[in-house]
Amino acid sequence: MNHSIAIILSVYNSEKPDYLHQSLSSLFSQTMKADIYLYIDGRVNKSLESVIESFEAEPNFYVVRGEENKGLAFALNTLIDVALIRGYRYIARMDTDDVSRLNRIEIQFRFMEERPDIDVLGGYCHEFGSEYALELKKVPLEHDDLKRYSIIRCPFIHPTVMFRSSVFKDGIRYPLDTKFTEDMALWFCLLENGYRFHNIPEVLLDYRLNDSTFSRRRGIGKAISEFSVRFKYMFKLKEASFKRFIILIIKFFFHVLPLFLIRYAYKRHR
């Protein structure tokens, strides 16, 4: 067991076997080896089981099964608990439909070793799989910029993130009381508790876009959840302004637009 880095990801019955295979293959091919933890969130079909079984001979692959589907936040929290018990120094995120660049883990590990002041580290990505994909998706780099940016946009591309495991030792976890905004709520919780953010100006991941990507961005539940979380932390983090409030209102209505308008906005206004 490599006690430096645990990579955590979760798979669900609706996911595509080919995507899972590509995702896992990119992790097992890393220039720096890490232990890979896959949470199976409820029962999955035979095709997905077959992909998982094809990797089970790998010595650094660990599978945790959940009998019932309990959602991404529960799955990730379960794996974080396992990683803490087993003494990993870093915990990296990944999704089962994305593809990590082969030196991603090594780049992040070396940066974190050189910068003990940074607690959460992400980077850029390349999008693919849709006509709306960006060749290069950027996010701000420095902590103060990311703090301000977080009020209206996510400060990280979630599956690129690597955490210093110490951020979770005081009980911080992905919140379970939000709807489709567990990563956003976690970023705010970490900012509130004084943890430091940073992004690397390098592409760490190929991020897959498809129809479900856009579907997840709409709906009244998503709109209410995101607005309430962002509005609350706009004041908690002392980043309130009239301009940011107006942007939050616009983003609220964006989430309830018809799907074709969301796609158009996604292409034209990012």
From TrEMBL:
Membrane-crossing residue ranges in chain numbering: 245-266
Superkingdom of the source species: Bacteria
Domain (Glycosyltransferase 2-like) ranges: 7-159
Single GO MF descriptor: glycosyltransferase activity
Entry keywords, A to Z: Glycosyltransferase, Membrane, Transferase, Transmembrane, Transmembrane helix
Alphabetical list of InterPro entries matching this protein: Glyco_trans_2-like, Glycosyltransf_2, Nucleotide-diphossugar_trans
Family statement: Belongs to the glycosyltransferase 2 family.
Designated name of the protein: Glycosyltransferase
